[in-house]
Amino acid sequence: MIRFLKRINVYELVRPVGQMVLFSLGSAAFMSAIAISLALALDGTAVGASLMDKYNVSLYTYTMLNLPQVIIDGLTIGFVYAAIALGYTMVYGVLEFINFAHSEIFAVGAFVGVELLIALDGMGILAGASLGMAYAYLILAIILGMMAAGGLAVAVERVAYRPLRGASRLVPLISAIGVSFLLQDVIRLVESLTSGQFNRIMPTFGNFDSRIVFGKIAMGTSKLTLGISVKSIIVIGSAVLMLVGLNYLVNATRVGKAIRAVAQDRPTASLMGINVNRIISLTFLVGGLLGGAAGVLYALKFTRIDPFVGFFPGLKAFTAAVLGGIGNMTGALLGGIVLGMLETFAGSYMGVFTMGAAGSEYKDIFAFSILILVLIFRPQGLMGKHVMQKA
Amino acid sequence: MSLLEVDNIHSYYGQIHALKGISVEVNEGEIVTLIGSNGAGKSTILRTISGMMHPKKGMISFEGKDISKKEPHEIVTAGMVHVPEGRGIFPTLTVKENLEMGAFTVTDSRVIEERMEYGFSLFPRLKERIDQFGGTLSGGEQQMLAIARGLMMDPHLLMLDEPSMGLAPILVELIFDIIKDLNATRGTTILLVEQNALMALSIAHRGYVLQTGEITATDTAANLRNNEEVQKAYLGVS
Asked: Which terminus of chain B is more solvent-facing, meaning fewer CB atoms within 10 Å of its CB: N or C?
């Protein structure tokens, strides 16, 4: 036992946690600074006046009051993006190919998890479940979603990508887009045959919707509430666990070394006795597992899913992967957190800052402007494109 | 029975007929060299033997077993190691990790340790660089690493593709001394592809001369060195 413990590479467990804390605090501080300075600048203008008129609160106070919730929401969605982005980036790192079907892998994970919970709810099991059992069911849903998505990712690679290996780079990309449409329609078909409706709602159970309040701080006439919903803790906590696990797998295990070797030089890796096809399958499996878990977590956070639920999160996670540097795992983590934070800040404050002219429905503009800007000015991404290397 | 028997193989790159009926035999304990100019098909022979490409026709047997349809990772475990052209060092794995990759299919960590120490005894320079990324090594160090990594499998047959490429003459000599030594002291059988024909023939027992995918001559190394055609074409003797 002690010998086993000694072989654990503690550094590789601590390092990613450190990175997450750093990226979270950094992006939160950066975005808060922008929001607060904008609020201060606009407070004396018509923007501040109109808010004062309507709600009798200054723009600065309003911004500060919302800040904790915005940061937590940003982190929550950021970690979901990061978990999806890692699926894109790992596959890209190994095959230099963007798996555009990954968004539907995510959707399938969400559907499998939610359908399981709906079925349990229908049997009346969820309603009477104790808190411990509620968590057990949620974990079961996450694991089932992961398994479905992971298995599907491996199958898609085997059927739709492997036969095209060696073809020009555009060919598997087109195949991926085809698979993406196909999977959307398969989800629709299955849902219309079974439940008869496309919109599925995550059942409410356990204490996931309650909030933990740490305290209140007086701000003028209002009070700033410091709290976090249980859901957000679950989403962030599970994502952190998965990301640490993935980092450990890739950087501190024998299989991880093989993944990195295949990413760097596939022919030579095969000469080392590595079964390259198996490693590629494994990469898709790991990406699918993460994507599936992210799907269930996404459903937990946003409650409603439909067959196209994967499209936007998928595209944004892809943007996050490009922003961080596609092929770079640390980059995907950074990109996910930054993008989630940026989008949530934009969604929460843009309406007030523009006097309602541009509301939160425009928040996607930010994500995709980033994609375009990064592709033009820094195509290698923030962390560079060193493929699957140790940071 | 010879250790490796390549019998009349034909290989293609798409439509290009790269190997037109090649037969090569390597016996236990020999150093055999394939010489020939650029594009003659020397590397293609090694790639076909190690399973990186598959022959359209012909047969390859290693230790009496047909390996012509096997994948590279299966052939490695049979005891044949191919050190590829351009060395194939993993740039962002450390020297140690590169060596560990060489013994990927070995699970006994003590064996891995021993072999790594043996590699360091051949190339002490590698030990100094143990935690450096492979991509930061000089060309000579990378070649040392490639050979040391090849030895991590303790192969019966070691196939080396252009180990002298891009190296300073003094390093070429060092590398060739070690190849010769491996063969003499450990009995490792070696199949050597070289552009530096003079050097290759100086340590080999036998050789094959290749030209555009065909073997034009085969003989003992000593005889090839004295062969007028070979001298003219490859040894720079006019």
From this structure: C
Q: How many domains does chain A have?
A: 1
Report the distance separating Cα B192 and Cα B150, nearest Å: 13
* Cross-chain Cβ contact A268/B76 below 8 Å: no
* B128 reaches A (C-beta below 8 A): no
On whether residue A384 sits in a domain, the answer given is no
C-beta atoms of B97 and A389 within 8 A: no
**How crowded is the C-beta side of B149, counted as CA atoms within 13 Å?**
32
pLDDT > 90 fraction of chain B, expressed in percent and rounded: 84
B93–A268 C-beta distance less than 8 A: no
Q: What is the pLDDT of residue A299?
A: 96
Q: Which residue of A has its CA nearest to B152?
A: A272
* DSSP label at residue A204: P
Q: Which chain B residue's Cα is nearest to A278?
A: B73
Q: Quote the tokens at residue A8.
A: 């654990």
In this predicted structure, which of A163-177, A348-362, B58-72, B216-230 has the lowest mean pLDDT?
A348-362
In a domain, A211, yes or no: yes
Measured between CB atoms, which of B76, B93, B100 is closest to A271? B76
* Domain span at A301: 13-377
Which of B76, B104, B109, B112 has the most A C-beta neighbours within 10 Å, making it the best mutation to test the interface with A? B104
Q: Catalogue all structural domains in chain B, each as residue range(s) with its CATH number.
A: 1-79+158-163+190-238 (3.40.50.300)
Look at residue B16 and give its three-state secondary structure. strand
CA A72-A78-A83 angle, 5° bins: 135
Token digits of residue A324: 């961080």
User: Chain A: which residues have CB within 8 Å of chain B?
Assistant: 254, 257-258, 260-261, 264-265, 267-276, 386-390
Max Cα–Cα distance, chain B, nearest Å: 54
Average pLDDT for residues A82-103, to the nearest whole number?
93
* Cross-chain Cβ contact B90/A265 below 8 Å: yes
CA atoms within 13 A on the CB side of A221: 5
Q: What share of chain A is helix, strand, coil (3-state, %, to 5)?
A: 75, 5, 20
Instruction: Report the CATH number that the domain containing residue A62 is assigned in CATH.
Output: 1.10.3470
**Cβ pair B90:A261 closer than 8 A:** yes
Q: Which pLDDT tens digit goes with each residue over B97-147?
A: 999 999 999 989 999 999 999 999 999 999 999 999 999 999 999 999 999
Residue from A274, A159, A103, A353 nearest B100 by CA = A274
**162-221 in B: which are within 8 Å (CB) of A?**
none
Report yes or no: B85 at the A interface, CB cutoff 8 Å: no
- Region A214-228 average pLDDT: 76
Asked whether residue A80 is domain-assigned, the answer is yes
The ipTM of this complex is: 0.92
Any idea which residue has 């450390």 for tokens?
B94
Q: Packing angle between helix A329-353 and helix A311-324, nearest 10 degrees?
A: 120
Ordered DSSP codes for B22-59: EEEEE-TT-EEEEEE-TTSSHHHHHHHHTTSS--SEEE
Amino acid at A36: I
Residue A383 inside a domain? The answer is no
Query: Which of A268, A330, A385 to probe by mutation at the B interface, max B CB count within 10 Å?
Result: A268
